[in-house]
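Illustration: RNA helicase.
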Amino acid sequence: MSMFWKPGTEKPQLLDDEEGGVLFLSSSQSSSSSSRYGYASMGKQRLPVHKYRTEILYLVETHATTIIVGETGSGKTTQIPQYLKEAGWADGGRAIACTQPRRLAVQAVASRVAEEMGVKLGDEVGYTIRFEDITNTSVTMIKFLTDGVLLREMMDDPLLTKYSVIMVDEAHERSISTDILLGLLKKIQRRRPDLRLIISSATIDAKSISAFFQPSKRHRGLEGQGLSPRKEPAILSVEGRGFDVRIHYVEEPIADYVRASVSTVMLIHEQEPPGDILVFLTGQDDIDAAAQLITEEARTVVKNSSGLIVLPLYSGISRAEQELVFSPTPRGKRKVVISTNIAETSVTLEGVVYVVDSGFSKQRFYNPIPDIENLVVAPISKASARQRAGRAGRVRPGKCYRLYTEEYFVNEMSAEGIPEIQRSILVSCVIQLKALGIDNILGFDWPASPSPDAMIRALEVLYSLGVLDSDAKLTSPVGFQVAEIPLDPMVSKIILSSNQLGCSEEIITIAAVLSVQSIWFSSRGAQKELDEAKLRFAAAEGDHVTFLNVYKGFLQSGKSSQWCHKNFINYQAMKKVMEIREQLRKTAKKLGMVLKSCDNDMEVVRKAITTGFFANACRLEAYSHNGMYKTLRGSQEVFIHPSSVLFRVNPKWVLYYSLVSTDRRYMRNVITIDPSWLTEIAPHFYHHQGPNPATH
Ligand code: CDP
Ligand code: MG
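Result:
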């Protein structure tokens, strides 16, 4: 592929690259990265936040809320919790919490901080993500956790009394859980004047968060007096230490960003001096594809290819792979990290000098009217593009190659992303708030209000699931039990139904598999072999039953990694499935369920799945020769994803677990159903569907 690059129009004074050109991330440049890429020189004292240590501690002491803005890599996440601990915030038996929207970031920063403090991970410094708790209540002083896990903790401890300071990190990402958390923390603050909040982020949108935390007139009055802290939020900007990044744009729009990113990497490798390359793609599929292509090209085309180390970075990679990504590049080598937008701000990679930005990321989009939530590869915002470019200026002046035109950047890209709460299905969010006793959800104090249509849809689904009653209150026991299980309410519901249907062992296995990214080992070059391997397990009933076959095989093999390898199954993912399964069995027993197996009665398994996923029922179009389905509810066109065992089989009636959109809307994880189950199981949901679907 031939591509022509054009440097951005230079406007050296610009602090922000609204119109392209050189991106000045900050004014103060240090030229002291004397060691190669500056690994050794990045001592704790050298991080930009260090200069602000006293000020941060003073602000936290005297203000209920402190907002800290600082460029990625300035030390916010790893240092501030340590400062707080040193200042005694964890001495009174309460811990310091630091939330992250992403699990991988939680693990990565917790390991790093434990290492810096010279303690064992899980003792003074620990972390909790869903299904993995590496903390020790009596000794853990600094705890990293996902925003979602902190929300769950509120179900047992509504005022979060375990913590003295809560740092809501990466607030600019505006994940759904972060937004809910901000709303709830604002409430908690009124009841707990001793609690301190730190809200930290990488971009400059401090004003809107600050406005959100302004005390209302009703609550103002006592501030600054006696021991109670000021209620007006404090804002602190940490000046970064990034280097200039020169932006290059493609001259013409490109058709295939995976191939274009591969050629750009090869070009950089051939023509540019040493320095690691960070490529932003969208998800496991395109990242694995690009990694494969780069490895192949490096082998065949490029002369000095031995120097490339190609590493993927997305949430499904193993701990060992994570370590490779974060460890220093060996001398004489060049690392190419191909990442989702996790590397945009959540984690810092040292040594990156070149960034290749596809201009896309995978985003959730929800449309309440046809009631469809999609995971879509969508254009990023200007704010994201700037963050991505900034990753190239960590250790010395860098370059960013944008795989889109300057004209596109200037005229087409939106300035900011849309908060996740405004583009997601709200079923989980509603049930969590209900479980926390927040009944008036539309009247909740949101940092950004969700759409009323989406809210109504969520209430409707929860009502049909039997989770809410007609007054929109949680039902007892089903509603409370569904809220208790740390899964999507639809999955929690199928676990509960499996109790009556006598197939809880099977459904728990399925729920565990659905909680991991993929149990198949994806390998581009070996698509045919993977498909053949899948056929060995494929069940006519669909993917969920196929998972049960894989699980059985795995147990019969004695949980062997060789067996997994031979069958194109991801051993790490299977180990994770076993762990999650155990946790879910414990939760189920706690809820009073008696775990039972239905042996080989797959009809009850499919029925149990229907009790949670009836809203995702689809029918094959009668005259469709290309496998087109329509959703029963919104008449949307959908297709079975090629990764499904039912791809090309095209049974008439199916249910899907999730949708992804590329050129079309694809259903992922599909099973066959009998349409009469729909009206039997969800009469409320299908009653105004016109003629009974079973009569078609
Ligand atoms: O949160 P923020 O982006 O401000 O910075 P940080 O994550 O606290 O990173 C501060 C420094 O620690 C950077 O130099 C990182 O490269 C380093 N770090 C690391 O080497 N490994 C990690 N897992 C996390 C941070
Ligand atoms: Mg951070």
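Reading the tokens back as a structure: The longest strand covers residues 653-661.
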